[in-house]
Design brief:
228 residues; alpha/beta; five-stranded mixed β-sheet; 7 helices; globular
């Protein structure tokens, strides 16, 4: 890690409306503890010295603190999220005042099974002006929609699905997030690219690094959890 400080922003401010539960998906139980607790515990298992920043909605901060105490998870610095993921990450970055060469990882709070190899691989791949992006192979067949509304098959071996955590130099990602919001910002690497930081290093992640979006995803995560 070359002695650099490592900050991990865990974005957990979403309402989880698609999930359909009484509480946001990141607080739902996965085995013996909530999804978000698994997420942070796995990140700290990979990098015990990391500075965790959890971004939660304004009304859930106290609830998250209580969950963290109950399940013996370090809640980290708690930051209030915004109306979008982009705004939530920007709010978290605004709280970091450190050497611009520090490393920042941004991770989805609803990805509870991130592995140590992925986290360490991303950290080692961070370079000035470059995004470190974990990916997994695409297993479904793909078709591209053309301008006239028809479609054509594409070679899935040429594509990868992007996951998190994504890693950056602090000075670079902070500068990138000074841009005004655009709908093209689908992840943090796309914000970096829009700011002119076009370098990207891909790191192979594991298929178990899934994002909990639907109830079936929670069942799949539970299955992976029993096989760890």
């Amino acid at each position: 890690m070359n002695g650099k400080k490592i900050y991990i922003i865990v974005v957990a401010a979403g309402s989880g409306s698609r999930f359909g539960a009484d509480i946001p998906k990141q607080y739902c139980m996965l085995g013996c503890k909530p999804v978000l607790c698994h997420t942070i515990d796995n990140l700290l298992q990979a990098v015990p010295s990391a500075h965790i920043i959890t971004v939660v909605s304004a009304g859930m901060a106290d609830y998250w603190r209580e969950l963290a105490v109950t399940h013996k998870t370090q809640p980290g610095r708690i930051v209030t999220g915004g109306n979008s993921r982009w705004e939530s990450v920007r709010n978290a970055l605004a709280t970091i005042t450190d050497d611009e060469d520090s490393i920042v990882l941004v991770h989805d709070g609803a990805r509870p099974l991130v592995g140590r190899d992925t986290v360490i691989g991303v950290i080692k791949a961070v370079r000035p002006g470059c995004s470190a992006v974990p990916v997994i192979p695409v297993t479904d067949s793909l078709r591209r929609i053309t301008a006239d509304g028809s479609s054509e098959a594409v070679d899935r071996s040429e594509y990868r699905a992007v996951v998190t955590p994504q890693g950056f130099r602090l000075g670079d990602i902070t500068a990138a997030y000074r841009l005004p919001y655009a709908t093209a910002f689908t992840d943090d690497a796309s914000v970096m690219a829009a700011a002119g930081f076009s370098g990207t290093t891909l790191i192979q992640s594991h298929p178990s690094n899934i994002k909990i979006t639907n109830p079936g995803d929670l069942a799949m995560a539970a299955w992976y959890l029993t096989r760890r």
